[in-house]
Structures are given as structure tokens and as C-alpha cells.
Amino acid sequence: MTGQDVRRIVLDAIHRVAPEIDPSSIRPAERLRAQVDIDSMDFLSIVIDLHEKLQVDIPEADYGRLTTIDEIVSYLEARTAATPRSR
Predict the structure, then answer these.
(1) What pLDDT, in 10s, does the model give residues 38-80?
(2) How far is CA 21 from CA 25, 65, 74, 75, in A?
(3) CA-to-CA distance for 11 and 5, rounded, in angstroms?
(4) Deepest in the core among 21, 57, 69, 71, taking most CB within 10 A?
């Protein structure tokens, strides 16, 4: 899975939780919650969606590392590379 694939999945997850947000308007290096109106429950829903789509565990202790789209994508790329896929 490429970084672009992961980025698309992240933006899709955000759009599913908050359909009023235009994913193309999100600046990838800026804090996500400062740009869009999502609360902690929305953020948790996004994390759960990413977990389900990518089959990657995202411990609560790591939530602080997921503040920008770029950080989320980097984190998930590393986690998906380390997670064996069952077929």
C-alpha cells in the first residue's frame, strides 16, 4: 500500500465522519482539529474507521501523534508495513 493509498483512506474516513468537510481543503501539514470542526468523538470515529479499513491497531497512547494528515499518513504507513496481512 502506497502513501497515496493511505492518504486517500484517511481523507475518506474524515469525510465519512464529517461529510460537510471538503477533504481537498485540508492542509496536510497543519493541525487537523484546528482546521475542521471535529470533536473528540469524531476523532475517535475516524480512528476506529482507520482501524477497520487498514486492520491496524492504533493505541490510545498514540492519538497525540495523529495531529496532522501528514502525521496520520506517516504513522499508518509505518504500522501497515509492520502488520502482516492475512489473505
Answers:
(1) 999 999 999 999 999 999 999 999 999 999 999 999 999 999 8
(2) 8, 22, 22, 22
(3) 10
(4) 69
User: Where do the domains of the chain lie, and which CATH numbers do they carry?
Assistant: 3-81 (1.10.1200.10)
**Are the beta carbons of 51 and 11 closer than 8 angstroms?**
no
**Bridge partners, residue 68, by sequence:** 31
C-alpha cell at 21: 468537510
pLDDT digits (tens, 9 = 90+) for 10-48: 999 999 999 999 999 999 999 998 898 899 999 999 999
- 31 three-state secondary structure: strand
